[in-house]
Write a structure and sequence with these properties.
Length: 122
């Protein structure tokens, strides 16, 4: 074997690839990007990346991205007095309507209601 640091029984090239993809997504969730660009950066097809991500993490890239953005939005709403419009943009949402709709669907509250609830709970 040319690389003694790699154990043939445990080396999973797809797992390494998908972990790099997840890291790229995690580090860039607040920016607008396409899955195709990540696939291109990693040298694989978009379909292959999407399939592997779902296989390894049990969720789609889109769902993972939404969860990251909502986590950041809830953090900002809870720990800052940043305007809600800026919270949405800082978390990576491209439109306010999408932000409100997604936030309400996932939390059951509007961003303003969520912030008020958190302030009362403090």
């Amino acid at each position: 074997m040319c690389r003694p640091d790699l154990n043939e029984a445990t080396y999973e090239p797809n797992k390494d690839l998908i972990e790099r993809a997840k890291e790229l997504i995690t580090n860039n969730y607040s920016k607008s990007f396409e899955t195709k660009k990540i696939a291109q950066m990693l040298g694989v097809s978009n379909n292959h990346l999407v399939r592997l991500f779902k296989q390894y993490y049990g969720t789609t890239i889109s769902e993972y991205l939404i969860e990251l953005r909502l986590k950041e939005a809830t953090r900002l709403l809870t720990h800052s007095d940043t305007e809600i419009t800026k919270v949405a943009l800082d978390a990576g949402f491209q439109s306010m309507s999408n932000f409100y709709k997604t936030f309400k669907m996932r939390t059951g509250l509007t961003p303003k209601e969520y912030r008020m609830k958190c302030l009362k709970g403090s």
